[in-house]
Amino acid sequence: MPVFAAIASSRLPSRHAHLQLRRWRPVGAMALLTAGLLFGGPSQAQVGSTAQAPGTRSVNEWLSRMHEASRQRAYTGTLVVSAGASMSASKVWHVCDGSQQMERIDTLTGTPRTTIRRNSDVITFEPETKTAVVEKRESLGMFPEMLRTPNNLIPQFYAARETGVQRVAGHLADMVEILPKDDLRFGYRIWSERQTGLVVKLQTLGEQGAVLEQMSFSELQLDAPVSMDKLQKLMKDTRGYEVHKPLLKKTTAEAEGWRLKEAVPGFTAMSCHTRDTGAAHTPGTAPMQWVFSDGLASVSLFVEPFDAQRHGQERAAAVGATHSVSKRVGDHWLTVLGEVPPPTLRRFALALERTR
Questions:
Q1: Which residues contact 337 (CB under 8 A, 6 or more apart)?
Q2: What is the pLDDT of residues 127-166, one digit of tens each?
Q3: Which of 193, 235, 265, 335 is most buried (CB neighbours < 10 A)?
Q4: DSSP output for 148-183
């Protein structure tokens, strides 16, 4: 269900200095949980794992089953997101045809917004401002870094536990908990539709199993007649909208003059981008996003030149399961953001250092 990625990417804390970067890429396991495009194509081992009875699946087999369901099913539904006292809802249309996947997500609460995605191509329409943002989003997928992280270390840091069966949006679903083995990451409680494996509900779990954030379908129609052609036409129709195309430049933290002096256990650097303005710049002066993942949870380091008028004292914030820490690092301003416990973010913040 790529839908979770698009919805969660619009819910990052907007009052921080990384606002201009928040459209780059969805951050956090809640943002990444059930999108397609994880493996690119099912292997025989992965397909075979979907036939196993509950109680015999490993953590990787559960995740593979959920991924395959997101790739192979067409559906429509209403997705409700709650985090603390905040609640929002969106209407979802999803369709797949071989290697092509498309979806449309319309917000039902808050600012009107329509997001349409075709594989990695994404456009977001904002009717109130008559603007449309065109992007390419890498790593859209259900836990997309699962097989990109060295040796797939997920079982080293997480374990799976089946906990029963419940009905969600009229569908019977297996309940499974993906639990961390240390205090550097959150856990997840997932409801996976019994017949298909499709994720129909997800909770992010904090200390002592407290629910930090929840996403759940309130109504869901499987194998719905969603038209890919219609979605493609809607995606291309930008008449009356001012179109923006933010450009990202792939780079490395080392090339920009940064490094981590101490690794955070389990987390591997996955990508690094700066915003491409078309003009030459001295390394370290363009806003940069450096993404890390343990295969499930993701953390982003946003670095930009320090601006006394916009940046102030070190601060921390939280919205549901998404936490952020902001601080000055020399002549730069750092915001570390992710769906991980605050101590994990602080370890990243303390480890970042300038190399030139």
A1: 12, 13, 16, 18, 27, 299, 300, 302, 322, 323, 324, 325, 345
A2: 999 999 998 875 444 444 444 555 577 899 999 999 999 9
A3: 335
A4: TSTT--HHHHEEEEEEEEEEETTEEEEEEEEEESSS
In 10-119, alpha helices (H): 29-32, 44-49, 59-72
**Domains within the chain, CATH numbers bracketed:** 3-244 (2.50.20.10), 248-354 (3.30.200.100)
Cα→Cα distances 151→135, 144, 146, 147, 185, Å: 30, 14, 9, 8, 19
DSSP 8-24: HHT-S-TTSGGGGGTTS
pLDDT tens figures, 290-327: 999 988 899 999 999 999 889 988 999 999 899 999 99
pLDDT of residue 185: 96
What is the Cβ-side half-sphere exposure of residue 11, based on CA atoms within 13 angstroms?
29
**The whole model's pTM is what?**
0.81
CA 112/CA 200 separation, integer angstroms? 24
| Residue pointed to by tokens 């981590």 | 260
